[in-house]
Amino acid sequence: MPEKFHPLAARPAPVPVSGVLATLRRHLFSSLPNALLSLLLLALLVWLAVKGLRWGLVYAVFAADAERCQAARGLGACWGVVNEKARFILLGRYPQAEQWRPVLATFALMAPVLASCSTRLWKPSLALIWAGGLAGFFVLMGGGVAGLESVATDQWGGLPLTLMLSVLSMVLAFPIAVLVALGRRSEMPAIRSLCLVYVELVRGVPLISVLFMASFMLPLFLPAGKSPDVLVRVVVGITLFAAAYMAEIIRGGLQTVGRGQLEAAASMGLSYWQTQRKIILPQALSAVVPSIVNNFISLLKDTSLVTIVSLYELTGALSLALGSDPNWRPFKIEAYLFIAAIYFAFCFAMSRYSLRLEKRLARGKGQ
Question: Apex CA 20: angle with CA 14 and CA 24, to 5°?
Fold first, then answer.
């Protein structure tokens, strides 16, 4: 006789394991202590957001009115200081009647940088774009040709100076770093020792010491009147400093390439430089893209140290702008936030490009 059928009771639906709610449950509310801590942090973030909005927007003063800013002190931000001092902060002490030149010079400098971000333009002609961009920058900034008024380098400042120091130092430091990294792995003891001394000597001191030596100590060893311009000395100092750090990054990338690659290249009859250029360096550099970009980001921020040698980039120009005007001096926090936003924009753009390049290289490797 067949058994009687007994239907099973309905069971609850399975808990979703994906989606926003599942992620919140898994990471923030997985237990009672985690839930309490998450709610406490959420309440703190909401409180900070409300205070920040009230200070930065609701009670803020956007007009360049020092009296209204004084009346709102402690209650709202004074963004009027940015409105009032933006030209000085961004362009420094450059003659006001000629300030269209640093604006165009900045675009000329950024053109080859943006062109280099496209892998389709990684051709020999890219060197001509770089040469034209750098030449256009220095002609516009320095003048003295094509009817442009000559402007001394000690009057350069603000954003154009910050970008020039960063971009030019990066461009000059990269080939030096590659040669030093290869020298560190050379079988010739003299070359290997020389590169080791250079790297350890430069990495053993802060950048501010390198700038001080390049700007104040170097002229003491040169004949009177033969010292290079202070801007040239600063660029050389930053370049050598950045190259030492980048050389160690590239050397780490070289160590990721197996010895079998060298043996395979030797069996094909490739010379040392052909092996490095076509086989070793492409693999090594692709492995250390994040570290190289991180070094570039650090270099961009380190340019703020050139103020000690009387070159007034963004932060230095801000000090000049507020130091000579007591009416706006109390609102330096808002001005520094403006500069921080500029630095963040450039650093964030570089980090995003680094991720994009990493993904492209990973696809090229079939990962």
Answer: 85
CB atoms within 10 A of CB 332: 15
CA neighbours closer than 13 Å in the CB half-sphere of residue 297: 19
The token pair at 82 is 């940015």
- Model pLDDT for residues 286-336, shown as the tens digit of each residue: 888 888 889 899 999 988 888 888 888 898 888 888 887 888 888 889 999
**Rounded Cα gap, residues 86 and 100, in angstroms:** 14
Structural domains for the chain: 80-94+151-364 (1.10.3720.10)
With vertex at residue 155, the alpha carbon angle to CA 114 and CA 333, rounded to the nearest 5 degrees, is: 75
- Is 182 in contact with 246 (CB distance < 8 Å)? no
349: left (phi over 0), alpha (psi -120 to 50) or beta: alpha
The span from the CA of 287 to the CA of 304, in Å, is 30
- Please provide the average confidence, as pLDDT, over all residues in the chain: 86
**Helix intervals (H) in 94-124:** 100-116
Residue 258: phi and psi, rounded to 5, are: -65, 155
Percentage of the chain lying above the pLDDT 90 cut? 32
State residue 364 phi and psi, 5-degree precision.
-65, -25
Angle at 347 between CA 345 and CA 352, to 5 degrees: 95
Give tens-digit pLDDT for 231-282: 888 999 999 999 999 999 999 888 888 888 777 888 888 888 888 888 888 8
pLDDT at residue 7 is higher than 70: yes
For residue 139, the model assigns a pLDDT of: 93
Q: Please give the full DSSP string across 230-248, using - where no structure is assigned.
A: HHHHHHHHHHHHHHHHHHH
What is the distance in angstroms between the CA of the first residue and the CA of the last residue of the chain?
A: 62
Query: Which three-class secondary structure state does DSSP give residue 313?
Result: strand
The pTM assigned to this predicted structure is: 0.84
> Do 261 and 276 meet the contact criterion of CB atoms below 8 Å apart?
no
- Of 290, 260, 262, which is closest to residue 354 (Cα–Cα)? 290
CB-count burial class (<10 Å; 0-12, 13-18, 19+) for 282: middle
| Six token digits for residue 333 | 């926090």
Name which of 294, 287, 171 is nearest 239 in CA terms: 171
